[in-house]
Amino acid sequence: MAKIHYKIVQHDGGWAYKLGDGFSEPFRTKDAAIAAAHRVAAEQHIPGDSALISYQDENGVWHEEMSQGDDRPDADVIV
């Protein structure tokens, strides 16, 4: 099982949660960003449907793979 960490950071004049290089929308307060990150982390644990996904890697190469709906990451929030 993959483990992912949402990090709380100052961003765009407010606060946001960040995963990798991606930021959420900005929140006015740190507490609001923390609450939103906890909601998103909890949603990561909800199983979904299996689906064929396509994605492009950092070298511009496209890949296709089957994403299993019950293969969910373990997500947490780092404040």
From TrEMBL:
<dbReference type="Pfam" id="PF09954">
    <property type="entry name" value="DUF2188"/>
</dbReference>
<protein>
    <submittedName>
        <fullName>DUF2188 domain-containing protein</fullName>
    </submittedName>
</protein>
<dbReference type="InterPro" id="IPR018691">
    <property type="entry name" value="DUF2188"/>
</dbReference>
